[in-house]
Amino acid sequence: MASSLISRQFALSLQKNLWLSAPGCRYVSKAAPKTQVEFDYDGPSMKTSVPGTRSQELTKQLGDIQNVGAINFFCNYDESRGNYLVDVDGNRMLDIYTQISSIPIGYNHPALLKLMSNPNNLSTLVNRPALGILPPENFPNKLTESLLSVAPSGMGRVQTMACGSCSNENAYKAMFIWYRNKERGHNIPSDEDLSSCMVNQVPGCPELSILSFMGAFHGRTMGCLATTHSKAIHKLDVPSFDWPIAPFPKLQYPLEEFSRENAQEEARCLEEVEDLIVKWRQKGKPVAGIVIEPIQAEGGDNHASPDFFRSLRNIACKHGCAFHVDEVQTGGGNTGKFWAHEHWGMDDPADIVSFSKKLLTGGYYHKDELQADKPYRIFNTWMGDPSKNLLLAEVLNVIRKENLLEEVTRSGKALINGLYELQAQYPGILSRARGQGTFCAIDICDDATRSSILLKARDKGVLLGGCGDRSIRFRPALVFKDYHVHIFLNIFNEVLAQHK
Amino acid sequence: MASSLISRQFALSLQKNLWLSAPGCRYVSKAAPKTQVEFDYDGPSMKTSVPGTRSQELTKQLGDIQNVGAINFFCNYDESRGNYLVDVDGNRMLDIYTQISSIPIGYNHPALLKLMSNPNNLSTLVNRPALGILPPENFPNKLTESLLSVAPSGMGRVQTMACGSCSNENAYKAMFIWYRNKERGHNIPSDEDLSSCMVNQVPGCPELSILSFMGAFHGRTMGCLATTHSKAIHKLDVPSFDWPIAPFPKLQYPLEEFSRENAQEEARCLEEVEDLIVKWRQKGKPVAGIVIEPIQAEGGDNHASPDFFRSLRNIACKHGCAFHVDEVQTGGGNTGKFWAHEHWGMDDPADIVSFSKKLLTGGYYHKDELQADKPYRIFNTWMGDPSKNLLLAEVLNVIRKENLLEEVTRSGKALINGLYELQAQYPGILSRARGQGTFCAIDICDDATRSSILLKARDKGVLLGGCGDRSIRFRPALVFKDYHVHIFLNIFNEVLAQHK
């Protein structure tokens, strides 16, 4: 059944006109200058509560193999399309969480189905190279047409990696290497450097640090984890580094109504950053780099102003620290710009920008001087996966062809305005609606109410995720349109009415 | 040109008889009980020295984007087949390095081309799920038919990850979590645990350690890197942990001729391991786990006896440390058994076994008690990639159908005997021939001679890799047969004759 449907989709995708309607699917055509049609369902369709019987059976089965405490339900990815995720019990949900913000243009986009069924791409799927030593012929061109075509300002260099954590780990290493060469005044290590590093000791393994922020999330491998401070469950029982942690501004929303208070709060945090840099230098653990998310995501969708980031970037320059902007969750278009840091309006926003999730491959951009001075310093077996670069190149084509960043800005306005309205309507439940593009969030009065709301919304066909202590985060795909916003708002309203 | 050829391969792969010969390709049929035929080239074919003009151009182009100091040459993966890697200048090389030991059954294996061109698999290629929360319907079955079908003795649980480093990082975390719960006597953290871990401090982020061995390689992210001690270039300038590092036995080869001396050396190392465990416990940084490779690969193909590993496993048990066997490079069949640790003949070889490379997906198996007690402790966005599980399931089918482990044992004997002969013939250049299955190595008199031999062999059509200070490692695919061994030995002999 599932496989027959995907065969049908496959057949459709190979036809000249990719955008055929099919039974149960919505065919939308607009008079816009570029193609703005979509292969999508009409709306949610719920047959059982979630997880249904089949999901429960499979969860039990998987429980013999893995911890299944985080499993929501099992999915039928063959039947899922556009903004709709279909589960194994036949429930079809409007997906505003998109696999923890990692599905860029919806499920089974015809352009991607076509790409992956092109026999010319077969060898990329079956022969994964060690990119650092034996890249494929098209590798420089693929990087140019995919990652470099959306490179942040001032960055012409990019290193691919397999996932977000690896990307940040290697970005940190690049900053440490850069910083030590700067300290040395050259890039020739001493004999003592070389021998001591083999046994984890100074000076070869120096006592450098990365400054991060409370509430930050930068990944879960041990280097990243030392800069992650969003939830105890991520960090508990894992050894860490004594690195400085600055407060992230706790702003009041809507931002424009509290500009004076927020500016004060940001100034307080910036002062603390400088104090920590000085203090850690005195401790003998100088700050090689500062890492920050443009919007703290996992930590609760915490925003800061462009002024804050500009000042922070200046502090980094002043103290000789590298400035690393982690766009793993914010990158890829959800904020209405391809990179969230573009909202800061700076020509020189960062030294390193890392990415993953919606970019489908991990990696990081960097300025020339952040490139490791020798081969094999930033290295591993695969260093990414060319099959993901293929997908990304096509995703970027679709984003351009379908003007998806404009769509995001449009849907984002509808979404935030809808959230403001609901917040006015349910002041006892909702507060602090905030967002940029469709990268929005709202706070719920308490964690228990949030859980209940998330489950009820899911049973009514809307899939959402939490973040922070009591926020709901909105992370739709870039193909999330006005009318999807309204489907969501209607259902959310129903759920809230039951909680009032 | 390249794409027309791959289309031809694709077409062939879809025909009922997958094993057609094609111009320039070898059609081998044996009278063995199961299919033992192969889609492969006749032998190396060299048109230029390597890297040729086209590779040099592309290296220059990539140099504007990345550090290219480690690039060997650029490849034409469409034209590569079986044991032969074709470069962009039309050179065809017998590949005995296989993308740093990560290609299990050769290039463009017809079974994998067929698999990836099956429209039923399209949705797996374009919809990458967040496996920890929303797995696909077939996920438990795919795990069962792929990873669990080759699970190490005593292990029914497996966690997938994106790469080798992530696999080891998460395995270490699992050991830390397990150890701390053991110390507590229960799994309920104190309020102090929960608050202190948020700022990287004890007791929430405890001062636990992992014991590793000199010469080990376990990856390059910061947790793994603290247990890697093979080359300074990997570790230089990166902060690390003060964790214990034991000597790995320096054995004399052939092992059977030096059993008394080697047993003494192993006893010395084991004694040191126990001393370090006691010392680090006294330091307040108890050893939560011991990590070791069955054969130190990157560090120079250093072997130890089954007795050594059995004793080490006992020491781990005695001192309450978890025992983690890192099979990232040794796993997947090259040693003649699917896992190198199977050569130890133990029912209970380890608590954790990690893998990547030839398994095509990263991950680790573990005993029940090493499963994290709560969800989201071992977690990330993707937690692997189902498209790699698909490939792995088919690779395992091919290994079984084509009896590839038996082939490896057979080719491995031919390889090691050939190396012994060459070593006798060129005693001034070669020494310490060693290996298990085709996982072999030999030492060269010095690093400069090694470099020269590697380049000359490459120009004659044999691709090899180095390891340690002056070793050459052999890492062919599992489809490397007797006659490939002889092609290699003939060319290697020619190269050595020039150096004599």
Written overview of the protein:
Two copies of one chain form a homodimer. Chain A is of the alpha/beta class and 500 residues long. Chain A has 16 helices and 16 strands. A seven-stranded mixed sheet of chain A has the order 5-11-10-9-8-6-7, with helices on both faces. In chain A, strands 12-13-16-15 form a four-stranded antiparallel sheet. In chain A, helix 12 (306-319) links the parallel strand 8 (287-292) and strand 9 (322-326). In chain A, helix 15 packs across helix 16. Chains A and B meet through helix 1, helix 2, helix 4, helix 5 and helix 6 of A and helix 1, helix 2, helix 4, helix 5 and helix 6 of B. Chains A, B: Its EC number is 2.6.1.19, 2.6.1.22. Chains A, B: One of its GO terms (molecular function) is (S)-3-amino-2-methylpropionate transaminase activity. Chains A, B: Belongs to the class-III pyridoxal-phosphate-dependent aminotransferase family.
| Cα Rg of chain A | 23 Å
Major sheet description of chain A: 7 strands, mixed
How many helices of chain A?
16
Uncertain ranges of chain A: 1-37
Name the helicity range of chain A.
Answer: 25-40%
Strand % of chain A is 5-15%
Helix/sheet category of chain A:
alpha/beta
Largest interface: A-B, 133 and 133 residues
**What oligomerization state is this entry in?**
homodimer
Termini Cα gap of chain A: 42 Å
Shape of chain A: globular
Strand order of the largest sheet of chain A: 5-11-10-9-8-6-7
Return the average pLDDT of chain A rounded to an integer. 93
Number of strands of chain A: 16
InterPro entries (chains A, B): 4NH2But_aminotransferase_euk, Aminotrans_3, PyrdxlP-dep_Trfase, PyrdxlP-dep_Trfase_major, PyrdxlP-dep_Trfase_small
Pfam families (chains A, B): Aminotran_3
Enzyme class (chains A, B): transferase
Family (chains A, B): Belongs to the class-III pyridoxal-phosphate-dependent aminotransferase family.
